[in-house]
Amino acid sequence: MNDPSAITSSSDRVRMPSAVTPEMLAKLSGLGVKARTIVEGFVSGLHRSPHHGFSVEFAEHREYSPGDDLRYVDWKVFAKSDRYFLKQFEEETNFACHVLLDVSESMRYQSEGATVSKLEYGVYLAAALGYLILKQQDGVGLMTYDDALRDRLPPSSQSSHLEQYLTVLERQQPQRVISVEDVTGHGREAEQDNESNSIAGVLRQVSQHVRRRGLVVLISDLFDDPDSILRGLKHLRHQRHDVIVLQVIDRAEEEFPFDDPTLFHGLEGTGERQLEPRALREAYRREFDSAQRTLQHGVRQMGMTCLCARTDEPLDGVLWRVLKRRDNSRERVGRG
Amino acid sequence: MLSFSILAFGFLNPFLLWGLLFAGVPLLIQWLHRRKYTERVWAAMRFLKAATESQTRRLRMESLLLLCVRTAILLLAALAVAQPFLESSGLLSASQTTTHTLIIFDTSLSMQTLVDGVAIAERAKEAVRNVVKSGGAGDSYQLVTIAARPEAVIRQPSFSSDDVLAEVERLATTESFGNVPASLVEAERLWDESQTSGRMRTVIVSDFQRSNWELDDPAARARAQRALDRLASQSTIEVIPLGTGEIGNTAVFDAEVETGLITVGTPLSITAQIRNHGRESLRQHRVQLLENDRVLQTETVDVPSFGEVSVSFVTQWSEPGSHPLRIQIENDALLPDNSHWLTVDVKSELSVLLVNGRPGAEPLEGASDFVELALRPSLTSETDALTTDALRRLRASWDIQPTVISEAELVRIDLADYDCVFLCDVAFLSDDEVTRIESFVRGGGGLVIGVGQQVQLDEYTRQLSREGEGLMPVQWLRVMGERDDEAEPFHFAEPVAGHPITQPFVGNPQSGLTTANVYRYVETRAAVDGGTRVVLSYQHGPPAIIENAFGSGRVLLVTTSLDDRWGSWALWPSFLPMMHETVEYVVAGTSARKTIVSQPLSIELPAREGFGQTLTLRQPDGRTRPLRGVESQDVLQLTIDDLYQSGVYALEVSPDDVHRFAVNVDSHESDLRHFGEAELSSTILGSVGFQVVGAAGRKAVADPVQKTTAGLSRWLLVAVLTLLLVEQVMAWNGRYGLFALLASPIVVAGIALLPSVVVMLLVLITAGCCAWRWRLQSESRVG
């Protein structure tokens, strides 16, 4: 790790990073600038962080001496030997992070009140992650998918890789907000829900491509069938990948705030429905929450990290939550 | 007819049922609402579909329920406005609703009949008091009278029983007949104005006198029936008949002065007609003639059962002026018709103006000379041939003061100073003269037109006929006959009995009327609908004397000359009495100045200089009031339409100029026969359901048929209010709305029993809920 002090601290104190909002980012040009802004905002607000970065792994024990951080005391050893030992970590030398970004049509949704679409938000997150990891001189790769894998950028830790990484991401950014006309155009096929083009199939493909154990960050709205998602994640888990599921949703998708009678045109060929949103709001929210609970429960059952980000949330905050959750999970591993 | 109605349903305002069409509005809005929607793309379609599938049935049910509730609100509101009523056998208890009572109270003359010393009207008041006192809180009342001119005593519904009782106490009977059709029409109008709801009933309090309730006139009966049917369709009809048994009654139903013109010292014959309306004959019944409560003469008569007799009085006055007279019989059950009033105007002398159209150089050569001589004769042997009666009149007419003027002076003379004008062979009249003469006659003056060789027929036709509207609506066609003693003369035909002028000559060929020679006359043709009457004809048919009534005066046209130029009539004995009869007749005028209570009386007085348009009317009870007339063409026209008292009224033009007229009760009211309870079905009441109620206010027949609107209208409105509340809840949350709908019957019952203030509060809360929901929706849209 070239500059671990920038993101690593042993302090107990936790402070929220300064807010880097999507509105702010939208005003900036160039994805690189945006990624740096997110990371710098994140770093500046993170003077003392409880985690140790992405690329640290347990190495050995050493005896405790006064002044050491008690959090790293290995209590199991103490129980066996009645002596205090601290867990020592070492930097990984061949750490690779695979960012898997959902670029399907549903990710292009952007409600009236939102500044960016889910896809844009995901791109920002992916860019920030890539920037941060490469800044630690670790390897980061990128894969995009919709109903199948599309772009695939193998991981690399070279600083020149950032430009390639960002270029691929730049390509994913939509030129404009998806409209009703885009959806009601001719030649749209009905929804198909077979294994080959579902998220399960995609994740199986990913697991086939990423043989080496690493960190997989899945950025998606996860509006597929939860069982299908979990089935796909199992493929990654079998490969012993460390998986972070980062769900990006629009606030409107969660709250369903509409009142007037509306004809909803489903994205990805999911048909259309004319409804009274007011009458259906409660049931919708119930269905949405149920799906969320099922998904999060399933993901956590597999020992993975699952986070939900709304497109109106500050991105550095999301990044902070990702690192914090990863830090916690690693602690659990260390104690285990 | 006693009515035992089965359960029946109807509407007071059925035409408002078109409001039911509004029930389609929610459907229309729903349909339009479905056509109007926003389009948006949506990513989380999975959840939407899942939510839809799980909720479709419930949502559809809630939507349908909401639609039904909204439709029901409008339906019930429309029904409530149409005011449904239910005739039921006590299904809706009267105690639960207020009652609106329309009281139709008979104040006609017969209600003054004394039964056991108490007037029927007082018993009627007691019955009405019982009706009002038996009412409850919230009950309302209207009151209309049965009289010649029905009066809405309580026009707007009164909710104060004290006020109603006070009005009943103040009710006074009239001396008029009971105009049942007009009263029922007025009652119907009051219903329309009442705008009340609740149990409706009409209470008719009357003696049901036959003469008032038989309604022989088909048009009047139809009008009354229509109004009664309408009342019956809106309310229950209750009657309180107050006529009891057979009550005898005697009345002076008419009295006439035999002589038209009365002068000082002239014996005057007054004839009164007495009618017995009872089963018992009256023996030695006293009849008196009174002037200002002073008995002038007393006669006794026997009056047979249901028969009538005449009683004559002969009297005379030594002082000129207007004398109020009264014919009075003995008291019986009904007092006002025991008196009959009349007035007699006694003149000191008659002023006659003779307009001489052809002055003569020698005596009896002028056109008016013979008339002047006839009106102011000196008794000679010629008059011995006259009958005693005619002589008596002749002597009395010595007070006639003729004044002769030339044709040229007519324009300057004040005609108001004269009682009668003779136009003797006047060539023609100027328009101004015609106008003045017309005013004079219209005001009660007399005009006699005598023709002659100078008369310009075309001018007379134009000026006096005036297309049937003039003083003498006839066409002066041509002069017939020759002035030649050797020519065959014309003769007057035998006079027909009945006319005052010719009456003395009927059956008296020696009077010199039919034997008089007439050589020339003017042929005339009466105008169509001119209203003229031929008094005397020539033997070959054409009219010799024509009469026309004009305003309050009379005009006579003699189609031959009033001198000896066109015949020998002026030289014959009949000429003198004929002229006197003529003057007497035309001066008497056509205005009888006598009417009956409640009938309007029109009076025309000649307008004089300094005449104000406001006169004073002194009523029989001594009270005075100003009376305003309308001046038109030198005549002051007065119409008095509020004569509610019998007696003699005095119209005071000035202290020296007082015109009196008599007002008498309607003789129809004297027949006290009435419809008993069992006979009421034969009246117009027979076609509607009605209940007979005892005078004590208790129903004589137990028939709890009720007609109520408040029960239904109020409940419907309460249901509307409740459904509005339910709709609010249902629109907010379908499940809670369903609970509210299920609970609504309890809410309806609760609200219906709550005081109005609480209901108003609930209305405000409902309005508040609506506003709050609307605001929330607005805010969510803005958000």
Description:
- Chain A has helices at 22-27, 31-44, 75-81, 118-135, 161-172, 180-183, 199-209, 226-238, 251-255, 277-301, 315-335; strands spanning 56-63, 85-91, 96-102, 139-145, 149-156, 215-220, 242-249, 262-266, 272-275, 305-310.
- Chain A is of the alpha/beta class and 336 residues long.
- Chain A folds into 2 domains: 4-48 and 94-181 and 193-335, Rossmann fold, CATH 3.40.50; 59-91, no CATH class.
- A 6-stranded mixed β-sheet of chain A has the order 5-4-3-6-7-10, with helices on both faces.
- In chain A, helix 2 crosses helix 4, helix 4 (118-135) packs antiparallel against helix 5 (161-172) and helix 8 (226-238) runs parallel beside helix 10 (277-301).
- Chain B folds into 3 domains: 8-88 and 712-782, no CATH class; 94-246 and 672-703, Rossmann fold (3-Layer(aba) Sandwich), CATH 3.40.50; 350-588, Class I glutamine amidotransferase (GATase) domain (Rossmann fold), CATH 3.40.50.
- In chain B, strand 5 (114-115) and strand 6 form a beta hairpin.
- Chain A binds chain B through residues 105-107, 109, 118, 178-180, 182-183, 221, 223-225, 249-250, 253, 257-268, 270-271, 273-276, 279-280, 283-284, 286-288, 291, and chain B through 33-34, 36-52, 54-55, 59, 62-63, 734, 777, 780-781, 783.
- Strand 8 of chain A pairs parallel with strand 2 of chain B, so a sheet runs across the interface.
What CATH calls the topology of the largest domain in chain A is Rossmann fold
| Beta strands of chain A, count | 10
In the sheet with the most strands of chain A, the strands line up as: 5-4-3-6-7-10
Mean pLDDT of chain A: 77
Set down the secondary structure blueprint.
The complex is a heterodimer of chains A (336) and B (783).
Chain A: H1 22-27, H2 31-44, E1 56-63, H3 75-81, E2 85-91, E3 96-102, H4 118-135, E4 139-145, E5 149-156, H5 161-172, H6 180-183, H7 199-209, E6 215-220, H8 226-238, E7 242-249, H9 251-255, E8 262-266, E9 272-275, H10 277-301, E10 305-310, H11 315-335
Parallel strand pairs in A: 3-4, 3-6, 6-7, 7-10
Antiparallel strand pairs in A: 1-2, 4-5, 8-9
Helix pairs in contact in A: 2-4, 2-11, 4-5, 7-8, 8-10
Chain B: E1 8-11, H1 24-35, E2 38-42, H2 45-81, E3 84-88, E4 99-106, E5 114-115, E6 118-119, H3 120-133, E7 140-146, E8 152-158, H4 161-170, H5 180-194, E9 199-206, H6 210-213, H7 218-234, E10 236-241, E11 250-257, E12 262-263, E13 268-276, E14 282-291, E15 294-303, E16 308-315, E17 321-329, E18 339-347, E19 350-356, H8 369-375, H9 388-396, E20 400-406, E21 420-424, H10 431-442, E22 446-451, H11 457-465, E23 474-480, E24 521-526, E25 533-537, E26 543-550, E27 553-561, H12 575-588, E28 594-596, E29 601-606, E30 614-618, E31 624-628, E32 630-632, E33 635-640, E34 647-654, E35 657-664, E36 690-692, E37 706-708, H13 710-732, H14 734-753, H15 756-782
Parallel strand pairs in B: 4-7, 4-9, 9-10, 10-36, 12-18, 19-20, 19-21, 21-22, 22-27, 28-35
Antiparallel strand pairs in B: 1-3, 3-37, 5-6, 7-8, 11-13, 13-16, 14-15, 14-17, 17-18, 23-24, 25-26, 26-27, 29-33, 30-31, 30-34, 32-33, 34-35
Helix pairs in contact in B: 2-13, 3-4, 5-7, 8-12, 13-14, 13-15
